[in-house]
Design brief:
The complex is a heterodimer of chains A (about 525) and B (about 350). With about 525 residues, chain A is of the alpha/beta class. Chain A folds into two domains: about 240 residues, 3-Layer(aba) Sandwich (Rossmann fold), CATH 3.40.50.300; about 180 residues, Rossmann fold (3-Layer(aba) Sandwich), CATH 3.40.50. Chain A has 18 helices and 20 strands. In chain A, a hairpin with a 5-residue loop joins strand 11 and strand 12. In chain B, helix 3 runs antiparallel to helix 11, helix 3 crosses helix 12 and helix 13 packs antiparallel against helix 14.
């Protein structure tokens, strides 16, 4: 089995990458513990693991960002010292980061040659790069206009530029870190075709992801990491998603959300003709109409950047807009001359911001302070007219941390020191326990490990069952499909249509997300 | 790295390096660095006379350091302490000259209020420009220092100068407005203290402000919001905290504290407002805040250190051929190593602690 995948010569050759006994500690935290892995040449090798399992650390060691405390790296069987990213590039390793490292106002060509100009004059290397780009476009469906400015490209194309950059540097081993987070299903499929093409040409690809579906679809082998250790490496053909999930978490996980049919009540929030023009004069929302009822989850599907973020921020009082919004029958001031995020909280709207690092939490504050954040002016947190009651906040935080199973359950730690999932639980504990009539949730499980995802989904369903309205925005279609009672799809600031999650599927939603309205589209927002 | 090492070892090592380089510079101009150090220590800490000056400067630096710290907690870099203190001094002079105060302590309270209002108003303009127009506060406050100096120059040479005087300064305040010096304060306790040092009751006022600021930052809604805003502006926006309000309030408090510094240097010092009443304390305040990690209690030790440097430096200039400018170099080295080059010391220390832990 192993010998036949790549055929003849390659099979006998040494693995493209072999890591032996790699360990790395950050202070008391052992991020990687005696990692051994062999990535065979010409294969797509998946690495999965929860957040904080040590995947990124391992890849950073491989790319020369960190030095391992012990262990060795072998490239094509030769022990190689990767002291920095230049050494990694020399060893033929290319990396496509989750957050692209592109100069936005440079052209594609300029970005590709940046740092590999090969001389004081730009013209010769530009010409060389242009030739290579055309060739790669033909070989691998990697077509990008070389003269386009990067900021004008959509994310799918920007990602291709990253891949082209690596190939221009003659990478034989390509590492992709969570590459599909920002892509539509169609773009993701295209990426996988590119990856398969590269594999056929003998390139070795390491795919880091938390999406089990992608692992099953595109990889040949998969390695599972858990708490800094490599717990298993298996042939993808011999495994299945639930086995992988179990390996990742170390226990059985329910991948499907258990819920009863919704019992929708009164309309809680109603939005009509909502329009937003951002600071740069770009129209972000173009006439949104929607209602969310008590006791239902309205899911908003869409590729990131199609107005969902603005929708949440306008409803939460963080960004001004025009149109009307009524909450529990009361008119909200969308211009934000009178209203702000604080008054929205007083009107029983809670908001789990999609970017918990930037907005949802203050990373340098301790967990207990974060539990009060945004509600710090509430009477129960005050000792008298002057002083806050820090002891009361701490007590309250302890309870919330316990009920939301935040680990470690220590309110004195800074928010920064928790894992992604536990940070999100702190935010959710703060917002959900306020018992809001409307909960706005953006990307509730982004960067959250599987165990915590299960927990977070359960809490959202519970809140729904208490008769609260939930507006859920997520770029994870699976999440939208499994949690929502109704789904609307947003594209380019508009609602493309509404679907019943029981009667739709990822393909249909994917088309709507790409702005394609087929003939089967009927019905409208209720 | 444990917290105690961060708070104690990092500044300590930085200081040692700064002094070592200073010693080299002193050697280079042909003086004896050990004798220089001895002179500085005895001159500033060796007698109650020296302490009287050291603590006087310390009081200045406590207030300006606190001013910079509060603004910096909101991530506002108030470089304008110098100008705010100058204008604060104008407030002190006006209330001392034109209000018939019955005694020193009512005058002191009046002067504190007036200087706080004057300093706050002077800070309010750059604050407003930052909050509403996005004009960078570093640029505007530094420009306002020059404007303040010009305003004071005009006021002293044209408006407040007694007709008979050639000196650009106000008339001397009434003698009963003289603030009690440390000698007066300590006498009832039977402690003998030199009468010539200008350190006065404002030292206790400054320390009280440190405690008050600490309580405000850690225990009040306002402090919570200032810290939240300083840590993350987007997060503060998410929480419904008004950026305008925080920028204005933090800068008003900062300006007020800078202004109050003038009560010490005008009422406690020469008893009249002179051109250089602030003596660079506004800028030293930045170094004090940097070294004290902008913590209202943490700035006390650096304020004392700079008080020592200031007084010790004057002694050096009197006793040796080492020029006064040398002290500015030493201060600059201390600022550079404790503030700007913090990581120079921190990173090796962190590595050392990491190594130590692995071995144990």
């Amino acid at each position: 089995m192993i010998a036949d995948v790549t055929g003849g010569a390659a099979a006998d050759a040494a693995p493209a990458i072999e890591l032996r006994g790699i360990s790395k500690a950050f202070g008391p935290v052992q991020a990687n513990k005696d990692i051994n892995i062999r990535v065979r040449k010409g294969t797509i090798h998946g690495i999965i693991g929860e957040n904080g399992a040590g995947k990124s650390t391992l890849m950073s060691i491989l790319y020369g960002f960190y030095r391992s405390d012990s262990g060795e790296v072998l490239i094509d069987g030769k022990p190689t010292q990767i002291t920095d990213s230049l050494a990694a590039i020399r060893a033929g390793i290319g990396m496509v980061f989750q957050h692209f490292k592109l100069v936005e106002n440079f052209t594609v060509l300029e970005n590709v040659i940046l740092g590999a100009e090969g001389g004081a004059l730009l013209q010769p290397s530009k010409a060389r790069a242009r030739k290579l780009l055309t060739q790669l476009a033909d070989d691998y469906e990697l077509s990008v206009d070389p003269d386009a400015v990067v900021e004008d490209l959509n994310v799918g194309h920007q990602q291709r530029v990253e891949i082209l950059k690596a190939l221009y540097r003659q990478a034989n081993i390509l590492i992709l870190d969570e590459p599909t987070g920002v892509l539509t299903p169609a773009e993701a499929d295209h990426l996988f075709r590119i990856l398969r093409g590269l594999k056929e040409q003998g390139k070795t690809i390491i795919l880091i992801t938390h999406k089990l579906r992608e692992i099953m679809e595109v990889t040949d082998e998969v390695s599972v990491m858990r708490r800094g250790e490599m717990v298993a490496t298996v042939n993808t053909a011999d495994t299945n998603p639930s086995e992988l999930a179990e390996l990742m978490v170390g226990r059985k996980v329910l991948l499907d959300v258990q819920k009863t049919p919704a019992q929708p009540g009164e309309v809680v929030v109603s939005v009509r003709n909502l329009q937003v023009i951002d600071r740069h004069g770009v129209e972000r929302l173009r006439g949104i109409d929607l209602d969310v009822r008590a006791g239902e989850i309205l899911g908003i599907a869409g590729v990131a950047g199609n107005g969902q973020s603005q929708l949440l921020e306008v409803l939460a009082g963080m960004m001004p807009g025009t149109g009307t919004m009524t909450m529990n029958g009361k008119d909200m001031d969308l211009s934000l001359r009178r209203d702000n995020a604080r008054t929205r909280r007083e009107d029983s709207i809670a908001h789990v911001h999609e970017d918990r690092h930037r907005c949802g939490l203050i990373l340098d504050f301790m967990a207990w302070e974060n539990v009060a954040f945004g509600y710090h002016d509430r009477p129960e947190y005050q000792k008298n007219a002057l002083l806050m009651d820090n002891a009361a906040i701490l007590e309250d935080a302890k309870g919330k941390i316990e009920r939301f199973d935040v680990r470690p359950p220590n309110p004195m730690l800074t928010a920064e020191s928790f894992s992604g999932g536990n940070q999100q639980k702190i935010v959710l504990a703060r917002e959900i326990e306020r018992n809001p009539d409307l909960l706005l949730v953006g990307q509730p499980t982004r960067g959250v490990d599987i165990g915590a995802i299960e927990f977070i989904h359960k809490r959202l369903i519970e809140l729904r069952d208490q008769g609260k309205a939930i507006l859920l925005v997520s770029v994870e279609l699976d999440e939208i499909l499994s949690l929502s009672d109704r789904i609307v799809v947003m594209f380019d600031g508009k609602i493309m249509g509404e679907r019943d999650p029981e009667q739709t599927n990822a393909q249909e939603l994917g088309l709507l997300m790409a702005g394609v309205v087929g003939d089967s589209v009927t019905g409208d927002a209720a | 790295m444990p917290k105690w090492a961060d708070v104690l070892l990092v500044p300590l090592f930085s200081l040692v390096i700064a002094f070592a380089i200073s010693a080299l510079v002193i050697l280079a101009i042909g003086e004896d660095p050990i004798r220089a150090m001895e002179l500085m220590v005895t001159g500033s800490l060796g007698s109650t006379y020296g302490w009287g000056y050291t603590l006087y400067y310390t009081t200045n630096f406590l207030l300006t350091g606190l001013a910079v710290s509060i603004a910096f907690q909101a991530k506002l870099f108030n470089i304008g302490g110098e100008g705010q203190a100058l204008i604060g001094g104008l407030g002190v002079a006006l209330v001392c000259l034109f209000v018939p105060w019955p005694n020193w302590w009512t005058a002191m309270i009046g002067a504190i209020l007036a200087s706080a209002v004057f300093g706050a108003l002077w800070a309010a303009i750059p604050a407003y420009l930052q909050a509403r127009r996005g004009s960078h506060i570093v640029i505007t406050t530094i420009m306002f220092n020059f404007i303040a100096a010009s305003v004071l120059n005009y006021m002293l040479s044209h408006v407040l100068r007694p007709p008979a005087s050639m000196d650009p300064a106000t008339a001397r305040f009434a003698s009963e407005l003289r603030l009690p010096r440390l000698a007066d304060v300590l006498e009832p306790f039977g402690i003998a203290f030199s009468r010539s040092g200008p350190a006065n009751v404002m030292l206790f006022v400054a320390l009280a402000f440190c405690v008050l600021a600490y309580v405000m930052m850690s225990r009040t809604k306002l402090g919570f919001e200032i810290r939240a805003f300083g840590q993350s502006e987007p997060a503060a926006h998410y929480a419904g905290i008004s950026a305008f309000r925080i920028i204005m309030i933090a800068m008003l408090i900062s300006g007020a504290l800078s202004g109050v510094m003038a009560v010490n240097s005008v009422m406690g010092g020469p008893q009249r407002l002179v051109m250089n009443a602030v003596e660079g304390a506004g800028f030293i305040g930045i170094a004090v805040a940097l070294m004290g990690r902008s913590h209202p209690i943490g700035i006390i030790a650096p304020a004392l250190l700079f008080g020592f440097l200031f007084q010790g430096g004057s002694e050096l200039a009197i006793e040796t051929t080492i020029p006064r400018e040398m002290i500015v170099i030493i201060q600059a080295l201390v600022i550079m190593f404790t503030g700007a080059l913090d990581n120079l010391v921190r990173q090796p220390l962190e590595a050392m602690f990491a190594l130590g832990r692995r071995k144990s």
